[in-house]
Amino acid sequence: MNEQQLKGLEGKAVVVTGAGRGLGEAFAVHAAQAGASVVVNDIDGELAEAAAANIRAHGGRAVASGHSVADPEQARAIIELCESEFGSVDGLVNNAGLNYEALPWQDEPAQVKELIETNVLGVIYTGTAAADAMVRLGGGGSIVNISSGASLGQRKLATYAASKGAVASLTYSWALDMEDVGIRVNAVCPLAHTRMVWKSERSLRNCPPERTPSRIAPVVLFLLGDGAHGITGQLIRCNGPQLHIMGQPYLKAPILERQVWDSDSVQRAFDEVFGAHLEPYGLEKRVPPRLRKWTEGPSTPLRSA
Length: 305
Ligand SMILES: NC(=O)c1ccc[n+]([C@@H]2O[C@H](COP(=O)([O-])OP(=O)(O)OC[C@H]3O[C@@H](n4cnc5c(N)ncnc54)[C@H](O)[C@@H]3O)[C@@H](O)[C@H]2O)c1
Fold this sequence. Notes:
By secondary structure, this protein is of the alpha/beta class. It has helices at residues 22-33, 45-57, 72-86, 109-137, 158-178, 195-198, 201-206, 217-224, 263-272, 289-295, and strands spanning 13-16, 37-41, 61-65, 91-94, 141-146, 183-190, 235-238, 243-245.
């Protein structure tokens, strides 16, 4: 880490959820090194305490929370701890998350529920509690949600992808709601070598060990700090070497108009107009079968899919 990254959060109090290991721990350590007082939250309280003790041992200010973001009362308690210990709530990194791989027809309801409760409800409970404190204390703030490139759609990750899509939607909506009260809301889509990646052979192939969580931390630090003023409602992806903004979903032209759409006119709209406007889908940008015959190269015979 260079000197430049060690500044910028002096006097700020920041909550990082899921900060006992992996990306969250890196965000907490870097925030403390940049001068913030940090609530290090993790459902694994021992890990949270160890990470907070490590920050304190290096001269930083940190307190541990073993609360679960998936419980509204506990999520509020994480934010209250920040206010009672440090006197303000200036930043929140909504990082706690779970993932697993499953084919859609093998997905287990109990696993789906646990993931959605953590990745979606946890972000909502902690984010709304933080917004409540920030509005009441009157100092504005910055919320950084952790989404994922998987939100664009990935094989065997539908439930996880949906949860991260929800985080993207929350980011856009909260940014609209919170601009007038001085709270910026952005999201980061990281890729880093953590426990989450070790569990999946495919992720391991895409994410070599040198893509450490510390390489993502400067992006989160930037968004937490005042240098990011005027930046809100954005999804920013960083996978180590690459840093870019994710495009926003939008209403695509042409927008056809009829008083009423019946099944004949819908069929004609697709046959005559939309057939050529279908979008490649998923993170891998898969071309829909109906268009594929036009896109798979000149040698491919034209036959219907
Ligand atoms: N690693 C990647 O490449 C990658 C890619 C895209 C998005 N992400 C996201 O980044 C975030 C961090 O992931 P990671 O790779 O560091 O994973 P990780 O599994 O190493 O760490 C996640 C931490 O969250 C904690 N946690 C889980 N449920 C919790 C709860 N209810 N309350 C509080 N803490 C809880 C876990 O105990 C764990 O310490 C996640 O939201 C993940 O979806 C990671």
